[in-house]
Protein: Flavin-dependent thymidylate synthase
Amino acid sequence: MSITPEQQSEIDAARAAPSRTLRATAPGMEQHLYKAVPVLDHGFVRVVDYMGDDAAIVQAARVSYGQGTKKARDDAGLIRYLMRHWHSTPFEMCELKLHVKLPVFVARQWIRHRTANVNEYSARYSILDREFYIPAPEQLAAQSTVNNQGRGAVLEGAEAAQVLEMLKSDANRSYDHYEAMLSQDGQQGLARELARMNLPANIYTQWYWKVDLHNLFHFLRLRADAHAQYEIRVYAEAICAMVADWVPAAYAAFEDYRLEAAQLSGRGLDAVRRMLRGEEVTQESSGMSKGEWREFAALMQL
Structure:
């Protein structure tokens, strides 16, 4: 992990000067404030600020439902109800601001979630550091033969060594040329906004990312899933650990109804009902395509 001395100095100063506040705080999240959690070889995630807690979700919901609700359900039960029935606005009352350092190709996946506020380190104004994501050997995998978006068997031996060498040498050569184009030694030097286009997608960038809890849960449901690309999944998993401490009741409901749950199509639900009645159901009799049936069979462990 690469925290600059300036960033570390800011973190140390902030942690050394806590301030009293009248606003609600979450003890579980207070322990995460400003601390950088290492991810990948040079990346990290750290909490810069947050707003709200489990109580804020309940408070917002009861504004809608009225005073009588509190007598009918405890807070955790209400949060589970909200999650189970796909309510959104009560969860939007909580917000989280993160500082993230990540490879550019991961950032391009991440930015597809357009429901957050983002401010990224600008290579138009600043010079990027010579830091690249180089996968660990166990992450070097061949293309999957059944999933166009996934990985297959891990590369081994000479082929794995050759791939690692190419990744390292190509990244460093590109950065050498980037530095040369920027050089002021006896030449004008190319503008930073143009020189950056020569950099590879595995160079690291940084951003501040602020999102409400409803949209954060949507991000985590997709990116913390076992099928997500490893390089973004490890960031999602680090954030999951923070959110579990921040809003434990909401995260428990999210884990139960989203992360560890599964969705069935109408045909899939019909197939389950028929199986429970003792019928033998096949791909042909289910009305599902081969791909749908393969996923259904894996889910049901057929």
Summary: The first strand starts at residue 36 and ends at 39. The chain has a mean pLDDT of 91.
